[in-house]
Amino acid sequence: MHELLNFQNEKLLQQALTHRSYVNENPGEKHNERLEFLGDALLTFISGEYLYTRYPEIAEDEMTRRRSALVDEKQLAKFAIEVGLDFKMRLGRGAIQDGGFQSPNLLSSAFESVVGAYYLDCDRNIEKIRPIIADLFNSVPQAIMEIRSNVDSKNRFQEWVQAKFGTLLPKYITERIGGQDHAPEYLAQVFVGEQVYGYGKARGKKEAEKQAAENALSNLTKQGLI
């Protein structure tokens, strides 16, 4: 069993593995969405610190791209499988029938939830979780990280915005617009100031925001601005 699944409080691990679709069919259970939020914040911090320490020679913009590559949906889904979360996830019947155990969206969300739960299980001592996550980051080939960092649409759009507007940053507003609990649909809008630059729709929030950035870049290209 992977070290990330070695919990003192087994109920906390169980909650981290519980998707909302399971709770809908089993009232009284707790879903993992708050833990997912916490895990996402921890991974953002740890990945930033990891890159800052490991690559002292690279600039801030490249670190930003590489961080996105380390914590994007596809990579987190791979970590989830590596840790052994895939068939441990507690999903509703509909989610299982739709291939939920292989869904990058559900796998990445479960991984974030387990990271958040492990942090709480360790009495919020980040030193306990940092080396575990660093080992997973170390397993990502540098060449793969560089390829992903070069194609990250959110970072490319942010670079254009900063070159155009200085310190102003893109802002993403993402809302659920439909779908089932195990397969929600999200609409993302990316703003610069008060202006909408792009839209994206997908089953996951991160993917919807990525699509919005790609739409923004496409619009800029059509206008001859990039």
From TrEMBL:
Q: What is its EC number?
A: 3.1.26.3
**RNase III domain sequence ranges:** 1-123
Compartments annotated for it: namely: Cytoplasm
Q: Where is the active site?
A: 40, 112
Q: Which residues form the DRBM domain?
A: 152-222
UniProt KW keywords: Cytoplasm, Endonuclease, Hydrolase, Magnesium, Metal-binding, mRNA processing, Nuclease, RNA-binding, rRNA processing, rRNA-binding, tRNA processing
Q: Which cofactor does it need?
A: Mg(2+)
Pfam families, per this entry?
A: dsrm (PF00035), Ribonucleas_3_3 (PF14622)
Q: What is its main location?
A: cytoplasm
What's one GO MF term for it? ribonuclease III activity
**Chloroplast in keyword set:** no
Q: Which reaction does it catalyse?
A: Endonucleolytic cleavage to 5'-phosphomonoester
Q: Does the keyword Heme apply?
A: no
Positions bound to Mg(2+): 36, 109, 112
The UniProt entry, under InterPro entries, shows:
dsRBD_dom (IPR014720), RNase_III (IPR011907), RNase_III_dom (IPR000999), RNase_III_sf (IPR036389)
**Subunit organization:** Homodimer.
Q: What does this protein do?
A: Digests double-stranded RNA. Involved in the processing of primary rRNA transcript to yield the immediate precursors to the large and small rRNAs (23S and 16S). Processes some mRNAs, and tRNAs when they are encoded in the rRNA operon. Processes pre-crRNA and tracrRNA of type II CRISPR loci if present in the organism.
Return the similarity comment. Answer: Belongs to the ribonuclease III family.
* PANTHER family found in the cross-reference section: DICER-RELATED
Provide the protein name.
Answer: Ribonuclease 3
Q: Which organism is it from?
A: Nodularia spumigena UHCC 0060
Q: Which gene encodes it?
A: rnc
